[in-house]
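Session log. Operator J.P. requested a structure for one protein chain; no other inputs attached. Running the standard single-chain path with C-alpha cell output.
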Amino acid sequence: MPDRSNPTLLNGVAVLTDLGVIQIEGEDAAKFIHGQLTHDFALLGQDTARLAAFCNAKGRMQASFIGFKRPDGVILLVCSRDLLAATLKRLSMFVLRAKAKLRDASDQFQVFGLAGNATISGAAHASVAWSKADLDTASLVALYPADGTPRQLLVAPAGHATPAGAALSAEQWAWGEVRSGVATLTQPVWEAFVPQMLNYESVGGVSFKKGCYPGQEVVARSQFRGTLKRRAFIAHCLAPAAPGTAVFAHDDADQPVGMVVQAAAAPLGGWDAIVSLQLAAAQAGTLHLGAPGGAVLQLLPLPYPLLDDI
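Structure written below.
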C-alpha cells in the first residue's frame, strides 16, 4: 500500500463548527472540575492545556475534552458538540455547594484548527503537545502532530478574525485528527471505552497521581492490574468508515473484536480510522469493517509510543 502520509495535504486553517465550549467560572472552578475528569486541573497553569475524559462510575468515557485556563481564571473545555448538552447536564449535577458555575459558551467562542504552515510560531512551547499560550483574547493549544505536520487549536471570542492561512476543509482537518492517533469522543461511541482503550494514558489524557473522579478505580485497575485487553490503532480501508462501526476478525464471525472510534476520508483515496481493538485480534489475522466479510482494514503504525507503565 502506498504511503498516504503527505504533509502538504495539511496546510491551512479550518473552522471547527463541530466543537463546542463549556465554560466554568467561580473560585472553585479548577477544584470542581479536577474532581470530575481524568487529568489534574488543580495544578493547571497558564502555559498548559489538558486532554481529559469524563467517565461514568464504570470508567466508560462519556466525553473527552481539551481544557485550559484563561488569564481571568475561567476554565474552558472544548468537546464534540453532539455530546455537549448531555455532558453539561451531568457535570452540573455534581456542582452541589462548590462555587462554580457551568454553562454552554459555544456561542461566545469560535474554534479554529491550524495546520502546517498556518500554525502560529513564536508562542511559548508552541510545538509541544498540550502546551498553551494566550494571544491577546485568544488561546492557542498545541496538538499532537499528524504525520509530522504541526497542528494547533485556537479558541477565540466570537467575531475574532480568521487566522492567516489557506482554507482547510473540515474533512481535511478530520483526517489530520485521525492521523494524529488522538481520538475525540462523539455520540456514536458514548460509554464504549475506558480511557486506555483509546491510548489516553499514552497521549497525556490520564493522571494516575491525582485524587478520585468518577470511574477512577476502574481506570487505575485497568492500568496496574494488567486487565486492559483493548488498544487504539490507526487503520486504512477502501470502504467508508464511521464511528461505532464494528470490526470483525476473519476467523470469528460470531462477535466483533473492535469498533471504529473516529474516521475520515483520506485525501489520496480510501478512509483512515482510529479503531479500538482487542490486542489478540490486532496481532493475528485479517480484520474486516462492519461484517466478517466486509472491507479489509489494514493497521498502520501508531505515531506515538504506548507507555508500558506509569
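Operator note: DSSP finds five helices and 16 strands in the chain.
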